[in-house]
Amino acid sequence: MEIILYLSIALIAVAFMVLVIYLAKTLKALEGTLSSVSTTLVGLEKQLDGVTKETTELLQKTNALADDIQDKSERLTSVVDAVKDVGTTVSKFNGTLKNLTSSFDIQVEQNKEKVSQIVQWSNVILELKDKWTERKQPKSEVPTEKIQRVRSR
């Protein structure tokens, strides 16, 4: 029985040694994997630093662009307000012009008869003047002024 005990202990020792050998191989493989992961993480850290810098620059440019857009929007608002004021002024001017035109039309309509009488009296006066100048001229001469007036009518 002692032999069995020694053999059992030897078998346990061999099994423990095999276990230690496989455990050592597994730990070596794990060390390589962890080393590769560490290298990858270092590369990712560098890339992340680059991305962070680019993101910071992009954010600064975006803020500058937003400020520029805000400034231009405020300027455009003042231009739109000015154009609106011009439109209002033109509209008021058109209204005033319409009022003046209608007032003028009403006055012309009301004074139509007076204007007609003035035109008739002016024609009478012109004819009297022509006759007066005709009498003053010798009878052999034909008044050229009268011929011109007759042609223009």
What does this protein structure show overall?
This protein has 153 residues and is mainly α. 93% of the residues lie in helices and 0% in strands. It has 3 helices and no strands. The protein has helices spanning 2-110, 112-136, 144-152. The longest helix has 109 residues, at 2-110. It is rod-shaped, with a radius of gyration of 58 Å. The model has no long low-confidence stretch (mean pLDDT 87).
**Poorly predicted segments:** none
Shape: rod-shaped
Q: Output the helix-strand order.
A: HHH
What is the radius of gyration?
58 Å
Structural class: mainly alpha
Mean pLDDT: 87
Termini gap: 162 Å
Q: Provide a count of the helices.
A: 3
Query: What is the strand tally?
Result: 0
Q: Please outline the major beta sheet.
A: none
The percent range for helix content is over 70%
Strand content: under 5%
